Fold this protein.
Amino acid sequence: SQTIHQWPATLVQPVGSPLSLECTVEGTSNPNLYWYRQAAGRGLQLLFYSVGIGQISSEVPQNLSASRPQDRQFILSSKKLLLSDSGFYLCAWNLRGQAFFGQGTRLTVV
Amino acid sequence: GESVGLHLPTLSVQEGDNSIINCAYSNSASDYFIWYKQESGKGPQFIIDIRSNMDKRQGQRVTVLLNKTVKHLSLQIAATQPGDSAVYFCAEDTNDYKLSFGAGTTVTVRA
């Protein structure tokens, strides 16, 4: 069966520090991968998606970047975090339309 | 439709009553729709889906209704239980590799 791993679960980082969130998928090959952000009490905002290794599409201009160095690995990064980057970050993969989500990373920038 | 920047609407329901959660979608070309449930601090989980060639689909205690004419989707939960308290999102497959999520509705079940 397919599983998705996302870590860390929580993270507190100072303003201006770098960020690296990792997501890996097991049990499938060539998945479509996604990073979403969810601010407190709000809906899901799509940040990036990838349909293959090295292929990244950005949905909104921002302080973040994404990379897909391997088929089942998706990384969300920032060189310098802003306070506004705080939120709940979710990795997901898509199979025939249905998205499966990781458990999320709660990022607090202080 | 997209919900970026919007606060989530809420629904308060008495335990044992039926709940109805509504969603309007924006893309008439979308042919696949999904409802997700998100509990506090967790990722969204699949509840039920429906293809555009159907107007109703039933699961265990849940029913999804699709009205393509007015681009409206609803989720009905029968005999709502405390464990049903969560945020519920609808999503549409816009056929461009992405799922577009609705605003989400916070459901609170009163004992």
Summary: Chain B touches chain A at residues 2-8, 32, 34, 36, 41-46, 49, 89, 91, 93, 97-104 (CB under 8 Å). The two ends of chain B are 32 Å apart (CA to CA). Residues 10-110 of chain B form a domain with the Immunoglobulin-like fold (CATH 2.60.40.10). Residues 22 and 74 of chain B are 4 Å apart (CA to CA).
